[in-house]
Amino acid sequence: MACSLALAALAAGAGLTVSAPAANAEPSNYRFDFGAGPVEQGYTGVSATDTYSPESRYGFNTPENMANVPAKGSGAGSDAVRFLEFGTKSTNTFNVDLKEGLYKVTVTLGDTSRASIAAEGVFQAMNLTGNGATDSFEIPVTDGQLNLLVTEGKVGTAFTLSSLEIEKVSRHPEMDPTIWVGGDSTVANYYPLETSVQGGWGQMLPQFVDPEAFDIRNMATGGQIARGFRNDGQLEAILQYIKPGDLFLLEMGINDTAAKNATTETEFKEIMRDMVRQVAATGATPVLVTPQGRATDFVDGIHTSVNRWYRHSIVALAQEENVPLVDLNVLSSAYFTEIGPEKTLALFMTGDTLHPNRAGAAELARLVTADLTRQGLLGGAA
């Protein structure tokens, strides 16, 4: 400090002007507490009526489409705002001025059974479930502003936001190498992410992938089919950010085979082919993954489900398009056979032979990452 004062004195003596840092310098980090209740210490309070202005640098674009609502959480989670207009392309966004760079965004919902997060006009986190659900994602900002809203996870659900944290990761708006994941309920995230009873193998991938090598972005959702993933916004979000060096793991087929979804095997294969080609055109690497079978697919102590879920078309497509294949169907059957029917059933949700519990999802993620490593696609697992 003495040095600083001396420099200031010298400058003054030389007739120079010394300026303090601007008091209104644009912040790189924010913590917002939404709603009409008390503001949690260390947070900036934001009401549904707060309109964006260049002076405040944050606020709602159309506050007339927002409402303050209570929430069952504590602290910043004790209240929230509700988005009355929504959709990934909606202009009813919460806007924050940010300098160009890469940012980590952490979102905590209010009271809602299921909702998704959109920013910059595309999905960022899919189907957060339960009151107070929290998730994080990294996003590049290149136009000086982040535009975010809570949107569809389940029709008829209240889409609410309790808190938002924004942390600058880098001044360079470039995402780290990323593994993007598409799939259904056997792959999807379940909340709370660290303690959920049910799990999807996409949710568990971070346990087995070196975080210095890849980030994980799981865009899988329950009940999804190939056509829906391609047409309803999930693939669009991936294509906006995916780049050379990234991987795209695509697992589909379980719901496509259901009669209600009216997808023939030929249609399924061509939709999958289209997604593979769109991703490959970006320079990223698409990887097809076959779904595991049911816990009860045992015959004389041998687990096999090779005839399920349009698997043969997935295997054929990988060969035709010359893309990597993780045949999780076969890999998981070998593992289930090794541990036996009783221990296999213990890896699935109670009374459910299809959906893995947290331990089962971790085993499936282990098998996926081991095969990716075997094929030289990961460069080493953690």
Itemize the secondary structure elements and their pairings:
Blueprint: H1 2-13, E1 30-34, E2 44-46, E3 58-60, E4 66-70, E5 79-83, E6 94-97, E7 101-108, E8 114-119, E9 122-129, E10 134-141, E11 145-152, E12 160-161, E13 163-170, E14 178-182, H2 201-204, E15 215-218, H3 226-231, H4 234-241, E16 247-251, H5 265-280, E17 285-289, E18 298-299, E19 302-303, H6 311-321, E20 325-326, H7 328-339, H8 341-345, H9 358-374
Parallel strand pairs: 1-2, 14-15, 14-16, 16-17, 17-20
Antiparallel strand pairs: 1-13, 3-6, 4-5, 5-12, 6-11, 7-10, 7-13, 8-9, 8-11, 18-19
Helix pairs in contact: 5-6
Short description:
The protein has 382 residues and is α/β, with parallel strands linked by helices.
User: Beta-strand percentage?
Assistant: 25-35%
Q: Look at the structure and give the mean pLDDT.
A: 93
Report the helical percentage. Answer: 10-25%
What distance lies between the first and last C-alpha atoms, to the nearest angstrom?
A: 45 Å
| Unreliable runs | 1-23
Sketch the major β-sheet: 5 strands, mixed
Order of secondary-structure elements: HEEEEEEEEEEEEEEHEHHEHEEEHEHHH
Total strand segments: 20
* Category from helices, strands and their pairing: alpha/beta
Characterize the overall form.
globular
Task: Provide structural commentary.
By secondary structure, the chain is an alpha/beta fold. Helix content is 24%, strand content 26%. It has helices at 2-13, 201-204, 226-231, 234-241, 265-280, 311-321, 328-339, 341-345, 358-374; strands at residues 30-34, 44-46, 58-60, 66-70, 79-83, 94-97, 101-108, 114-119, 122-129, 134-141, 145-152, 160-161, 163-170, 178-182, 215-218, 247-251, 285-289, 298-299, 302-303, 325-326. Helix 5 (265-280) packs parallel to helix 6. Residues 1-23 have low confidence and may be disordered.
